[in-house]
Amino acid sequence: MPDLDAETDRALSEQPPSTWQTVVWNDPVNLMSYVTHVFRSYFGFDAPTAHRLMLAVHHDGHAVVARGPREVMEAHTQAMHDFGLWATVRKDPA
What we know:
By secondary structure, this protein is α+β, with helices and mostly antiparallel strands.
């Protein structure tokens, strides 16, 4: 008789880990220059990347600024809150 626990463990270990996103949302308070500064200082983005993401927040209403394990995305989201930005965690649809 097959070991069902071993089969389940193997099936779970073969699946890729869940990926989550940190999403920063547009708000009526923060200046675009400040959002760019936060993206550069916290995430370490270069100036063009930080500027592009800030423009996505401004024009599209939001931008995905990070992807990874849920716990890490929750930490990024809390950091964005600490900077005064609106941010959420969501499951990566990809």
